[in-house]
Amino acid sequence: MRRSRTTKLLVFALFAGLTALAPASRAGTQSPRAPGAVRYEKAPADTLRVVLLGTAGGPQARFDQFGISTLVEAGDDRLLFDCGRGATLRLAQLGVPMASVDRLFLTHLHSDHIVQVPDLLVAGWASGRVRPLEAWGPAGTRDMMQAFLRAFQFDIRLRRDVDEKIPGDGINVIDHEVTEGTVFERGGLRVTAFLVDHGPVAPVFGYRVDFNGRSVVLSGDTRPSDNLVRHAAGTDVLIHSVIDVAPLRAMGAPEAAIKAIVDHHSTPEQAADVFSRVKPKLAVYSHANASPAILEQTKKGYGGRLQGPEDLLTIDIGSEVTVRRFGP
Ligand SMILES: [Zn+2]
Ligand SMILES: [Zn+2]
Q1: Are 164 and 173 in contact (CB under 8 A)?
Q2: 50 CB contacts (<8 Å, ≥6 apart)?
Q3: What domains lie within the chain, and their CATH numbers?
């Protein structure tokens, strides 16, 4: 059915309005509060903020925890680490425009870490991103991003060339296939990639973000990794993945499959050992089942401050490390 011209104009006006509200620059931009949004306030300028957008690992879809994704805010810069299922919905919940997130760092290409990337890529542009989406990740990232562009070429062509005539810059991709070392540096903000050990899945990177003397380390999916311990030295916050075998058993997974999964992740006991070696001000689990059992098992081997996986948990790294939850 063809839209009437009036309806089409109204739709365009609404779209144009939304676009006008979306950022031309990323600094401090917030969307109007959407239904279901939380009362999110920007962090102080000298604070390194980390928001766990989604904390679930693995391919299973669930409502209580969304797929793995972490937002890092440093001054006016926003960085997204992994983009699992629901990441763009969590951004909307915070009132952070998708269009304002144009730097994406991928730990690896397992589907639970990348399944929402096409939404960020295409809808982020269609809702106002004016810069290309810049993506850092392991070998294979370039092919994957180009494949996403091909998959959505119908939508892209229509919006760019035929219908809304949205400028095309924002639907371009700048990709960086990373090796160990500094992969991004701007002002006082630096991102360092380092290899971790996900068994047969390789390469997989962890990332360290440093900003004005504050730092956070994200482990990616890994079994205990000496290289991670080395790169995490002196960090304020260490976010580590962990495997909980209880739900796998409850789902009836065969023991051989459970063994394989456990072999390329970290158990709570192993993560406790890593935390004890790194001694962060705050240890955090993500890519983890939100069960009290993993915390109890971890505490047997680690006496430091520990936070379980919790979507939308917000960690402010300033002169102190504080944890907060934004409410409705
Ligand atoms: Zn994973
Ligand atoms: Zn993985």
Answers
A1: no
A2: 70, 71, 72, 216, 237, 239, 314, 315, 317
A3: 47-324 (3.60.15.10)
Contacts of 326 (CB under 8 A, 6+ apart): 38, 39, 40, 41, 94, 312, 314
Ligand nearest to the CA of 241: 1
Q: Residue 287 Cα, ligand 1 centroid: separation in angstroms?
A: 7
Gap from CA of 129 to ligand 1 centroid (Å): 28
Which residues have beta carbons under 5 A from ligand 1 (an ion)? 57, 110, 112, 221
What is the per-residue pLDDT for 35? Answer: 73
| Average pLDDT value over all residues in the chain | 90
Report pLDDT digits (tens) over 28-42: 466 666 777 888 888
CA of 116 to the centre of ligand 1 (A): 13
pTM of the model: 0.90
Residue 159 C-alpha from the chain's centroid: 27
Catalytic pick from 77, 82, 102, 112? Answer: 112
Whether pLDDT at 20 is above 60: no
Q: Report d(CA 248, CA 75) in Å as an integer.
A: 40
Structure tokens that stand for 3 in this block: 């839209």
Q: Report how far ligand 1's centroid is from the alpha carbon of 162 (Å).
A: 39
CA of 24 to the centre of ligand 1 (A): 33
- 202: helix, strand or coil: strand
Report the first-to-last Cα separation within the chain, whole angstroms: 39
What are the backbone dihedrals phi and psi of residue 168, each rounded to the nearest 5 degrees, phi first? -85, -10
The reply to whether 311 belongs to the active site is no
